[in-house]
Structures are given as structure tokens and as C-alpha cells.
Automatic annotation (TrEMBL):
EC number: 2.10.1.1
Any one Gene Ontology molecular-function term assigned to this protein's record: molybdopterin molybdotransferase activity
Protein task: Catalyzes the insertion of molybdate into adenylated molybdopterin with the concomitant release of AMP.
Name assigned to this protein: Molybdopterin molybdenumtransferase
Region (Disordered): 125-144
Domain of life: Bacteria
Protein's pathway: Cofactor biosynthesis; molybdopterin biosynthesis
Keyword field contains Repressor: no
Natural source organism: Micromonospora olivasterospora
Domain MoaB/Mog as annotated: residue spans: 186-331
The keyword Magnesium is annotated on this UniProt entry: yes
Cellular component GO terms, alphabetical: cytosol
Keywords on record: Magnesium, Metal-binding, Molybdenum, Molybdenum cofactor biosynthesis, Transferase
Length: 419
């Protein structure tokens, strides 16, 4: 072993390794402490964002008594003389006399003075044009406030905005929502030995993370523009410092790929030191993905930004995303830390000693089981392409068939619900 290699190995061995579950909590707490500012967004632009304040109706729901059937709004005893028609979208005059009725449509406002509504299919018309029928015992209209009262909290701050919430907000009378703005993210690809097009050849491998990581980040709700992806960045300290400075000028989160160890061309740690970064987490006791990190920087204007160092091996990088970046982004959005679902292992999954093992699995949601997939080396992506998430095997344990274990789901599109 060379002196340089031995030195790097010794530095790695001396790092304060953080337990995986604790690392997730630290990342979430750091994000929550730096939660993004609240903004007003039109309903059409709010999907995938997060409520920054509770959702409450502006009026009672419904705001006025509303017919729940097509029929006849009647007053007093029948037979009833027809005095009008009430359609949805109108404010009708009251029924002023007993023995009168107005034809009424579903969703129409019930006139004052109405004592009952007779369903159209349960009514008949007499020879002289009057209406007869027997009203049902229960009122056939929705009362004001039946669904909610004005100002009542329907959903708390921190709720993800999805199409159902948007529809509810519209019914409550809202044109805009107070939400946390989407985090801006950037990606720096380290390793000037990487190819950015064509097949691997002549000792150079194709960069798989430059195209993939921005798509994962968008599924976590980030805004990532093509101009926010840079690389490969040259394997020099000045190049790393310059790339980080440029990316951090606009981004809330900068993800980097590779360079998280302490080898001769790993410049991420020295670059962070030069920029005055503070580690939130520096290496995590998880396999794959061990040499990952999360650092925090505060600019002169007081704005907090983050750097997530993802390992260069592709699957390890995704492990770092689900382990550190996902909880960080939940905190930045002001969302609760997601509770991990559980599934029963369909096959054995080995433990990793003192490390948490994140094992790629495919889920059978009907049976509630998790099936380990093949081709799961830290440098492989084939298994990831057919997986739904990672089964969590705790340190010092082995995943036996039938054991119920937490599962870290892979992200879907913003607003989608995975479980």
C-alpha cells in the first residue's frame, strides 16, 4: 500500500461515522431550521408545493342551503301550486305562501320558506297542474356549514399540495395558496475522467448521475434547470471551489457526485473548508453509500444553503439521496418527516454488521411484501431501474424472510402518492 493510499485510508477510518437513522434526523432538522420562505401561488401553479399555513374555507361549506336532488321545493301541505323554477347559480325569491312550490335543480339554492323537497321521481302532476307527493323524513338539502365552517382548519401547514387539495381550496373560495416556494437545486459532477456521451471506452466510464440526479431532485419537488447542471468539473481544488461558489449563488441545495473520500483527487472536503462550510453529517454508517455528507453554509445576507456530497458510485449516490437529501428537502418545505412504510421480506437480506443495509426491493403492494432484486452492486443501476425502494436492515441484524422492515420509497412525481 502506498503512503498516499494509507494516509487516505487512515483518514477515512478516523471519521466520526453517524448512524443512518440519526443522520436522517439531523438532515431533517437542518432543513426545518432553514425552511424556505412562504409565497402566494395561483391554484394552477401550486401542485407539488407545501402549505405554509393551514387551509380554511372563506365561507361556510356549503355557503347556503343547497338542494341535493332534482325535485320540488314546497311550502306547507300539498297539493302545491307551481310558482316558479330554481336553477343552480341563481338567488331565488322566497316561497311566501303555504301550498306553493318551485321546481328545483340539484345544486340550486333552496328558497327561504321551503319546508321540504319532494323528489321529481316521487311526485305527480294533477289534472289542474298542481304537484303532489310525499316528502322523505330527512331534508333533501345540504345545510350551511355541513362540510365545514368558515375559518375551520381543514388541513395543517406542512401538507403537500396535490390535485385533491387544489380542488378543496377552490371549493373554499381560494384563488391562491400560501405555500413554501420550491427549492432551487444544482448538480456538480466531479471527475474529469467521465464521458458525457457515447459508450464507455479506453478506461473512461459514462457519467450516469449527471442525467439522472436532476430528475430525482425534481421528483422531490426541486426546481432544476439545465443550466444548473455542471460537469465534469476538473479534478483540481480551484475548479471545485469555483464551481461550488457559482452554484451556491442561486441554489438552496447543491448536490455533488464523487470526491467524498480523501484520495489524491478528492477535493470536496478541502473545497468546503475553504468556503467555510459546517458539516451537518460527515459519513454515514450505511451500505452502500458510506462516504456521503451534508454541509451547511450561511451567506453574508443570512441565507442558508446546503451541499450534499453524493458518492461517485451510482447506486451509492441514490442511497445518499434517499438518506440525506430527502429528509433535508422535507424540512426545507416545512413538511413533517415522512413515516417510513413497512413490508414483510419475501426473501432473506443479509445484514452489514455495524452498518445499516439499504437493500433494493420490488414491492408487492397487494401482499405487502418486499422482494430483493438482483444486480445491486454500488456501481450498478440495473437493479435500481426495477426497484420501488430500499428495505432497511438495522445494524447488528439480518433480514429474515417474513420480517417486517421499514422501506424507503423511491420518489415519484410531485403530488403523487406512493403508498
Amino acid at each position: 500500500m502506498s503512503t498516499e493510499t494509507a494516509s487516505a485510508a487512515e483518514q477515512v477510518a478516523a471519521l466520526p461515522v453517524t448512524d443512518w437513522a440519526e443522520a436522517r434526523e439531523r438532515a431533517y432538522a437542518a432543513g426545518l431550521a432553514a425552511a424556505l420562505p412562504a409565497v402566494d401561488r395561483p391554484l394552477a401553479d401550486a401542485d407539488g408545493l407545501t402549505l405554509a399555513e393551514p387551509l380554511a374555507p372563506r365561507t361556510d361549506l356549503p355557503a347556503f342551503p343547497t338542494s341535493s336532488v332534482d325535485g320540488w321545493a314546497v311550502r306547507g301541505e300539498g297539493p302545491w301550486r307551481i310558482v316558479g323554477r330554481v336553477l343552480a347559480g341563481n338567488s331565488p325569491p322566497p316561497l311566501a305562501e303555504d301550498g306553493t312550490t318551485a321546481e328545483i335543480a340539484t345544486g340550486a339554492m333552496v328558497p327561504e320558506g321551503v319546508t321540504a323537497i319532494v323528489r321529481v321521481e316521487e311526485s305527480t302532476r294533477t289534472a289542474d297542474g298542481r304537484i303532489t307527493g310525499r316528502p322523505r323524513p330527512q331534508p333533501e338539502w345540504r345545510r350551511p356549514g355541513e362540510e365545514a365552517y368558515a375559518g375551520e382548519e381543514l388541513l395543517p401547514a406542512g401538507t403537500p399540495v396535490d390535485p385533491a387539495l387544489i380542488g378543496l381550496a377552490a371549493s373554499c373560495g381560494h384563488d391562491t395558496l400560501r405555500v413554501r416556494r420550491a427549492p432551487r437545486a444544482a448538480l456538480l459532477v466531479f471527475g474529469d475522467e467521465l464521458l458525457t456521451s457515447g459508450p464507455p471506452a479506453a478506461g473512461r466510464v459514462r457519467d450516469a448521475l449527471g442525467p439522472a440526479v436532476p430528475a430525482w431532485l425534481r421528483r422531490y419537488g426541486c426546481e432544476v434547470r439545465p443550466a444548473d447542471v455542471t460537469g465534469p468539473v476538473a479534478d483540481t481544488l480551484p475548479a471545485h471551489v469555483g464551481a461550488l461558489r457559482t452554484a451556491l449563488a442561486d441554489a438552496d441545495l447543491v448536490c455533488t457526485t464523487g470526491g467524498t473520500m480523501h484520495g489524491p483527487v478528492d477535493h470536496l472536503h478541502p473545497a468546503l473548508a475553504e468556503l467555510g462550510a459546517e458539516y451537518v453529517v460527515n459519513t454515514v454508517a450505511v451500505r452502500p453509500g458510506f462516504p456521503m455528507l451534508l454541509a451547511r453554509l450561511t451567506g453574508p445576507e443570512g441565507r442558508t444553503r446546503f451541499v450534499a456530497g453524493l458518492p461517485g458510485n451510482p447506486q451509492s449516490a441514490i442511497v445518499a439521496l434517499v438518506s440525506l437529501v430527502a429528509p433535508l428537502l422535507a424540512g426545507l418545505a416545512g413538511r413533517p418527516q415522512p413515516v417510513l412504510p413497512h413490508a414483510a421480506l419475501a426473501e432473506p437480506v443479509p445484514g452489514r454488521g455495524d452498518y445499516t443495509h439499504l437493500a433494493l426491493v420490488r414491492l408487492d403492494r397487494v401482499a405487502g411484501t418486499a422482494h430483493p432484486v438482483r444486480h445491486v452492486g454500488s456501481a450498478m443501476l440495473r437493479g435500481l431501474a426495477g426497484a420501488d425502494g430500499f428495505a432497511v436492515v438495522r445494524p447488528g441484524t439480518t433480514g429474515e424472510p417474513g420480517a417486517r422492515v421499514p422501506v424507503v420509497p423511491l420518489p415519484l412525481l410531485p403530488g403523487e402518492r406512493a403508498w
